[in-house]
Structure formats: structure tokens, C-alpha cells
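B., you asked whether I could sanity-check this one before it goes into the benchmark set. Here's the sequence:
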Amino acid sequence: MDLLRSHFNLREMPFRLTPDERYFFESGEHGRAMAHLLFGLSQGDGFVVITGEVGAGKTTLMERLLARLNPSAYRPAVITTPAVSGWSLLRLIGAEFGITRVADQAEFLGQICERWRGDHARGRRPVIVIDEAQALPAQTLEILRLLSNLADRSRPLMQVILLGQPEFRRTLASPQMEQLRQRVLASYHLNPLPAADVAAYIRHRLAAAGCERDDLFDEGAVAAIHAATNGVPRRINRLCARLLFNAALEGEQHIGAAAAKRIADELERDLTAGSPPEPTPRARSRTGLVEPAGFDPDDAPASPEFFR
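And here's what the prediction gave me:
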């Protein structure tokens, strides 16, 4: 909003909810999670698992990683999927690598292997990133594991990064996931920001948006923000955005503890007043997907036997 930008001399809004790697704040937690990602990628095989609460910064962390990857050395494919069958996930993966029309699973497997071998020949390693992995059915995870077994002369054709909410760890701990667990090379649970990091996080985002002040939020306000958000970055962003808006409306240049507590209480009341649930999002990838005429993906679910 122009009011906020002009009032606080900002280039852009600093506390947007959409993940943006330019605003990545490398707290101790996020630094350790990034180290696990980089270690896993350096192995060139298997799975890397990152879990964390909703809003903990998993997607921003991944955006940061993707921005750092050498595009001549890696070919990443990012898929956000609430819940899909094994065959549907294979089709989404295929679409990310330019395979948009396949008649059956055998054709898909032949084409994806050819694409991945071509990537390796050009020095690029395919990396598949699955966000919201906690929603994947067990059979779909098994299909993904079997897909990761594909190799060319003992060289794995691709690698997988799984991002999920805490319940995904419970899924992985189940007896039927033993074979997948054996393929996990690195795993980290991303915790919320500790109180000591919240002030630095807020200053970092303000500075990244062009604010030259470091006294906009006093210590009491920061403590109130941490108490209200439990250190979860997305919750911090939501509350701080409302605090900036309120300060701009009131013509204030300083945010203290009283205002932070009052606005936090107002925001909580607004969000818990009651509203209809949002519809479940459909699975999507970053590219389009064209179905063969008359093809119903539910008619041909992928099965583990297909890969054997």
C-alpha cells in the first residue's frame, strides 16, 4: 500500500506472506536446515527430508536453495501436491520435464528415463522437490521411492527433496516406510525462531524492503510479537504487517508493546470469528499438463510392480 510505503519510506512491503527468497533470513535453525539440504544434494542420491510447522519457512528455504543452485549443474522440478495417486504424481513429474502427453505408464517411464539421461549427458542432475509431502498417500510415496531407483550404469538418474509438516515424520516412522527411510540421506526438522532471533528477523525484512531505521519496533513490541506468534515466521509477517498498517493509520513512527499486544489480540479475534473452510487445493506443477483425449488417470493408477 502507498500509505505504508510513504509513511515508513519503504520500497516495497516487507512482511508479505508469499515466500520470497530475497527476504530469506538465515537464523541458526534455517542455516542448519540449509546445511542438511546442501549435504544431501552433494551425495547425488536418495532423499532429503525437511519438516516444520505451517509457516516455519520451508518453502522460503527451498526457494533460497533453488536460487543458489548452479542452473548448468542442476535441473530442479518443484511440485506442490495436496494428495495425489502414484500415477498422477508421475504425470506431474513428467510435465516438469516436458513430458505432457503419454499413453500409458510404460511410455512415461521410457520418456522420463530418456530425458534424465539427456540431462546427465549435459552435466545437469535432475532434482525433484515435493512440497506438502505429508499429504502424499503411502502408495504414492512407494512409487516415488521406486522411481528414485532408476539408474544408468549404477548412476542414479535423479534425487528427491521432500518438504512436509510434522506429521510427515510420523508417516516415515511407520513400518511400511522402512525401505524409504533407508534412502533418506539427510533429514532436519525446522523449528520456529527463538526469541533472540525475532528482533533480527524483523530488522532484516525491514532493511530488505528499504527501511533505514532499526528502532521501529521496541524491545517490548518484539517480545509481544514472539509471544503471540511462537516465533513462526509467517505468523510474525502477518502480525507485523498489521502493526505497520495500524501505525501508518495513526501517524505513528514507533511501535511499542501495548500496540503489539492490542493488535495481536485483534488479529486473533478476527481470525477465529468463524468462516467457511477453504476448498482443498488441486495438485499443481509449475508447468501445464495436457491429458490424452478420453484418458482418466484414476483408471490407471501406478503400481509398485510397474517398476520391477
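One thing to flag: Residues 233-250 form the longest helix (18 residues). Otherwise nothing jumped out at me.
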